[in-house]
């Protein structure tokens, strides 16, 4: 917390932001301004709501502090920047960026808010270092709606690959080096993102659709047509990295792509050893890269799913109940910080020495349990609990739907 203390001019928000981050790391069944304020010993949630919505501090500067914290502790020369989006299902139409759209969280089209994240994935661990809210066209075409949600009236629509390029640019402009970027088909099929990475001499392994066309020495072909031409002897069995239980082995093949520009370009093909299902990746590197390096980078993409899972499950990344952009950006930035803390502690514990026989290495989940039991959990008096019960009931009595229910009963 001392890393971000200088971003807050007064002692009250410094203390309150510490309580909020500790609340995000707690074992509360639901994490929002109300529950965290009660847990932290405050009389009402007004202070937490003020911190997120109206207090003077720069969430972008704190985001930069989170990035520096992660890079300092998880630095790896072979690290991969992984880009992906995740959605939070919402009700109503007022939450910033919400509309009916596909989200992988639900696996279908839902009323949801979607954000794109940049995850730093290395051998020591992985954590999110940047975030951008996806603002649909239905919002950018309505300046009044943008203004009401705290967005600039001149907010311009940007597709997800453009948001990814924006975050990668911030990472590189801060003076950091990243040899590789990995992402799914949404990003691999975008030529502007690929060109931006090539101009900055950043390698990539980006998933593409089977219908994606590539140019070889023999002409232009669809990715699946090129895969059909691969001879049996060209496939190699390699691990895409360790999964939850064991290494993920696939068959891999690579085909050179011909383009009249500097750099090495390939089509990487992955084949499931059980089902035969194929996946395709478009690859670039300033200098030729061996197959096992391309496979390692492709396998790093799963780290973003692990980051989302632990960020939501352990640090409340998706539990914000805020409508305006300022509050959203502040909440997710502090949740990123909370999760980064767990990832750093895990990395330091793993580096401390070998795990004792009969135990698995410490996980973020277990570190959180120990941290809650030994450091975080406060003891509150019964009077404090009753006071919060009364506050909730008074607040609910003022809500319109409760008043309507009371009127109907009389």
UniProtKB/TrEMBL annotation:
Q: Residues of the signal sequence?
A: none
Report the residue ranges that make up the Transposase IS701-like DDE domain in this protein.
10-214
Specify the superkingdom: Bacteria
The entry's protein name is IS701 family transposase
Q: InterPro entries from the xrefs?
A: IS701-like (IPR039365), IS701-like_DDE_dom (IPR038721), RNaseH-like_sf (IPR012337)
Provide the coiled-coil residue spans. Answer: none
A Pfam family reported for this protein in Swiss-Prot or TrEMBL: DDE_5
Classification via PANTHER family: TRANSPOSASE (PTHR33627)
């Amino acid at each position: 917390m001392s890393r971000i203390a200088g971003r807050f001019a007064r002692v009250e928000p410094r203390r309150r932001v510490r309580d909020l981050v500790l609340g995000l790391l707690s074992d509360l069944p639901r994490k929002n301004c109300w529950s965290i304020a009660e847990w932290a010993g405050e009389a009402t949630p007004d202070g937490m709501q003020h911190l997120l919505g109206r207090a003077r501090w720069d969430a972008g500067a704190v985001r930069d502090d989170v990035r520096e914290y992660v890079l300092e502790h998880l630095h790896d020369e072979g690290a991969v920047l992984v880009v992906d989006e995740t959605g939070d299902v919402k009700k109503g139409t007022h939450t910033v960026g919400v509309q009916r759209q596909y989200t992988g969280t639900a696996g279908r089209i839902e009323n949801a808010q979607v954000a794109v994240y940049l995850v730093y994935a290395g051998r020591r661990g992985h954590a999110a270092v940047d975030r951008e809210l996806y603002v649909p066209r239905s919002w950018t075409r309505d300046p009044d709606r943008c203004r009401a949600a705290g967005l600039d009236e001149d907010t311009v629509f940007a597709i997800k690959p453009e948001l990814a390029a924006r975050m990668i640019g911030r990472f590189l402009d801060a003076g950091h080096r990243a040899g590789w970027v990995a992402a799914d088909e949404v990003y691999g099929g975008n030529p502007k993102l690929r060109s931006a990475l090539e101009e900055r001499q950043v390698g990539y392994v980006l998933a593409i659709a089977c219908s994606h066309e590539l140019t070889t020495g023999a002409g232009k072909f669809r990715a699946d047509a090129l895969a059909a031409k691969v001879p049996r002897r060209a496939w190699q069995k390699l691990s895409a990295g360790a999964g939850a239980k064991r290494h993920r082995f696939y068959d891999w093949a690579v085909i050179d792509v011909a383009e009249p520009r500097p750099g090495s370009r390939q089509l990487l093909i992955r084949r499931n050893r059980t089902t035969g299902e194929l996946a395709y990746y478009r690859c670039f590197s300033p200098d030729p890269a061996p197959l096992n390096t391309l496979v390692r980078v492709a396998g790093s993409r799963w780290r973003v799913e692990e980051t989302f899972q632990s960020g939501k499950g352990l640090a409340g990344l998706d539990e914000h109940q805020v409508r305006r952009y300022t509050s959203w950006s502040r909440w997710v930035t502090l949740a990123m910080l909370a999760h980064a803390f767990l990832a750093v502690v895990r990395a330091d514990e793993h580096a401390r020495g070998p795990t004792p026989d009969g135990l698995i290495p410490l996980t973020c989940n277990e570190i959180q349990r120990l941290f809650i039991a030994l450091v975080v959990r406060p003891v509150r008096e019964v009077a404090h609990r009753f006071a919060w019960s009364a506050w909730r009931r008074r607040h609910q009595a003022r809500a319109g739907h409760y008043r309507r229910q009371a009127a109907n009963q009389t």
